[in-house]
Amino acid sequence: MKLLLTLATMFLLCGAAHAAPAATGAYFDQAGRSDVLSGGVRMIPIQTDKGVFHVWTKRTGNNPTIKVLLLHGGPGATHEYLEAFDSYFPGANIEYYYYDQLGSAYSDQPDDPALINNLPRYVEEVEQSRPTTITPKPC
After folding, report:
1. Per residue, what are the HEC states of 87-132?
2. What are the extents of the domains in the chain?
3. Distance (Å, whole) CA 59 – CA 111
4. Cβ distance 122 to 3 under 8 Å?
5. Which of 119, 115, 120, 136 is nearest to 54 (CA)?
6. For 117-136, what is each residue's pLDDT tens digit?
7. pTM, whole model, 2 decimals?
């Protein structure tokens, strides 16, 4: 899971190097967001070789140039220990996403160990979630 946390850090660093923060009013603009009535929460379908499952994400903020996907450790940990970012990222106008990987907290809980202890499958899960969360820019 270190690899996934490293990817999240790279998204933050690359985005911060290429863009200025959005204006505060624009940061809270929810226009056109499909998750406005759920407080930013979405269940994203993930295709696996065992079928389709759903992972939980929560978006906070609105900034087209600075986005961070917060990935918890695991398997089995949750996004909850990362909620401290609520104290810092909004003030920096950073759009960020909490994420519970398959088998963790609010995401689906499949009863198949092959889906849980499988790093390549987790990487693919993040890739399938990316279009609805973060599209990275090259550094």
Report:
1. HCCHHHCCEEEEEECCCCCCCCCCCCHHHHCCHHHHHHHHHHHHHH
2. 1-22+60-139
3. 27
4. no
5. 115
6. 788 988 999 888 875 555 55
7. 0.74
